[in-house]
Amino acid sequence: MGGTARDTIRLHPQDNVVIALRDLPAGTSVEGSALSAPVSRGHKIAVVPIKEGQVVRRYGQIIGTAKSDIAPGDHVHVHNLGMGAHQQDYAFASQNDPLPTIDDPRVFQGYHRADGKVGTRNYIGILTSVNCSGSVARFIAEAAEKTGLLEDFPNVDGIVPIVHGTGCGMSARDEGYDTLFRTLSGYAQHPNFAGILLIGLGCEVMQLSDLVGGRPIRADGVLRYMTIQSEGGTRKTIARGLEELRGIAAQANQAVRAPAPVSELTVGLQCGGSDGYSGITANPALGHASDLLVRHGGTTILSETSEIYGAEHLLSRRAETPGIGAALIDRIRWWEAYTERNGGEMDNNPSPGNKRGGLTTILEKSLGAVAKGGTAPLSGVYKFGEIVDRKGFVFMDSPGFDPCSVTGQIASGSNLIVFTTGRGSVSGFQPTPCIKLATNSEMYARMAEDMDLNCGDIVSEGVSIEDKGAALFELLIRVASGEHTKSEELGFGGVEFVPWQIGAVM
To answer: Following DSSP, what letter does each residue of 446-500 receive, concatenated?
Structure first.
């Protein structure tokens, strides 16, 4: 049975595997060898003999070690490929040439805030300090909708209750507390919120007085706060909350879209439900768009520390300074200790869905995930939810759990999110619009109502990564200017606020 050139793709001359571009039956000829078993689209096929203990390469990089002898034409996956030893030469700041700037005054239509930041949406947030105030926050939002409160304020995009499952039963003096504090503070000052109503219970560990005391959270002053216990219970808090929302809405309604340079865009780079195509199509296309934005003076944020493991050496080389590279590796070492003390391991990825899509080890998954970050120098490394205060391509520490990672990126200032997916992740993240990219045309056709852009045509139609990245860059500008994404049209964002809980629940 003969194969064709479009049956497979070799991603680098040094690779000893190729990737199936369609489901291939046993007996199909691949580079002169017959497949010993059927191989699904996105999975790997050996093209040379690989002895037990030898490394397997994809993208020209090591993705693992053969667990047994592998013959040409064999399917390479979890049954015969393991992670092996993980050692890298970090070569800090050795490949950090800046990208050429683009002196093209591209603009989007955004909301200019008092602190100089620019929002892509004009929401009002009801932010909770603790799980115990979450229901009341939603009651206030529901009451506002029932009474038609926003009918008099057409420039307001909506009211977003931000509720979560923590804020108490925790230490007040550890990294878990500090992480939640940064997250809530970041949301309170996010440029996509025109104003904030902050609701607490009153007796929680995360006290409102700590969040708002002694410093102006918002330069515009559009922040009101109360506790349920001080107001006298649920009904009284709802009534007071509606009064405060009306005052916030009157101020928020004064905001109108106006031209802003694209350098004011901060884009969180995400992937979820990855497959064997992710590192071939959508991720490198997003990487090209990331480079375009950086060249225009904007900011992009790569995250998911546990999902760059095995590819961190590619980022450390791109660090602007050795200190920035060392800061990235410090986070890697923290994660190694964190997983060990919690009985986990860094190779707990890929997920079952990732494996069905063709990914085998975390090294392989990470190499594809890093492609989202393009080629720009790494200009900073930040903690989860820490405000990003410099332009360019940066890294923010986070888990690989997508809603949690995006929560941190939004707290850090992302006013757009781009999310690549091969298996078909559905999600959205208020107050920040999320653009979803399909890695393969088959999933895009099946889930077109959830996907904003198909990148599968890079393989199926021969579209270049550069052209797709340029098309994505234009979509970024349109969405930043008000065009709705599929997740916005579907109403996502109500349950995707997921702060990173670190430490004991007491």
So the answer is: HTTTT-SEE-THHHHS---HHHHHHHHHHHHHHHHTTPPPHHHHHT--SS-----
